Amino acid sequence: MGQAVERKPDPVHLDQNSRRDPRLARPLLPTDLWRRTLASYPDFGLVRTRRDLDQLLARHAEAAGARLLEGTKVIDAALDDRTGGVRGVVVQRDGGRYLYGARLVVAADGAASPMARIMGRPQRRDRAMGVAVRRYYTTPRTSDDYLETWLDLRARDAHGRDRILPGYGWIFPLGDGIWNVGIGTFTVNRKLDIDHRALFREWTARLPRHWHIDDDHADGPLRGHALPTGLSRRPQYARGVLLTGDAAGMINPITGEGIDYALESGRLSAEIITQALARSSARRREQALHAYPQALKDAFGSYFTLGRLGVQLTYAQPRLVQSLTTQLLHRPALRRLALKLSANLTDPRGKDATDRIISALLKLTPAA
Fold first, then answer.
1. Tens digit of pLDDT for each residue in 16-44?
2. pTM of structure
3. Are 72 and 92 in contact (CB under 8 A)?
4. Could you tell me where the beta strands, DSSP code E, fall in 26-85?
5. Domains of the chain by start residue, with CATH
6. Using an 8 Å Cβ cutoff, are 75 and 35 in contact?
7. Residues 328, 168: contact at Cβ < 8 Å?
8. Where does the chain have alpha helices with state H?
9. What is the three-class DSSP state of 223?
């Protein structure tokens, strides 16, 4: 019999470019938003391209003992005829099909999640759904120390009226002369009738010309992504398949951030899977795995509900939201509250007034 030993995982060394002090901005009116106000977090932010981050995580997993199959696509689930549960996956690779058996399948296959569709777990329509587009640009501003958020996304409705959109534009410098520039919007229970590529062009056209946010300085194509938010796929565990990250709809409905929640749900799922596989019977293993959806709900459910209500309010009361946004931009205390709330970076044990307010809000809000 082996002995279980708790061991902290080795850190992933990212060699990131640090970016201090996130900045909230509106056209030509950038404002410092905060210095260090969270006891549980460092006083700097980190930026890395998605391509580099994905590779770093994959190599880190390999170093920890995982076997990585590249150029391999999961095309079906292998079902147990007796129980109806999943006993593995069917993949396509090098022109052939192969079966890989597994005691448990973790679907971390993104917002579209083919595995979730195979298992009959569609997106919930009552959760916020977002769309984001982004592009990289080369710029002469190589040492900008701010991550910028622009809150004035607007579009004209079918009647030609100008309306504020629930979403924002962003400019994230990578520290090497490359900027990640994009926009994202959200909606609930309605069709996304916005041409996001056109909206992106209109928004970037308003930026200062000397920033070089134009086709001549683009470093790659304009790419779009769906953003399923608020635990929009359920159940997160059933029949031997566990959903994590975007596949489970674990995207922040206020900011559209997904990587953080993917990593957090990955860690949480790993802890629960480890506990489950240590159980002595199949029934007890299933009991442990069925605790995963509740663990996600406990950790993120109330916050995701707040985000969804915010999106609904923007559509129902656009003028009120516009007025609140104007007040936010001119009042430091409100800016600080908005940043902590939108980024979900409150310190539960902090003595800051904004932490206490957000903690109270989350306690009063039902979980998603």
1. 443 433 344 443 334 444 444 566 777 67
2. 0.84
3. yes
4. 31-32, 45-47, 73-79
5. 69-102 (no CATH), 129-226 (3.30.9.10)
6. no
7. no
8. 50-63, 114-118, 196-205, 259-277, 282-289, 292-316, 318-330, 332-343, 353-364
9. strand
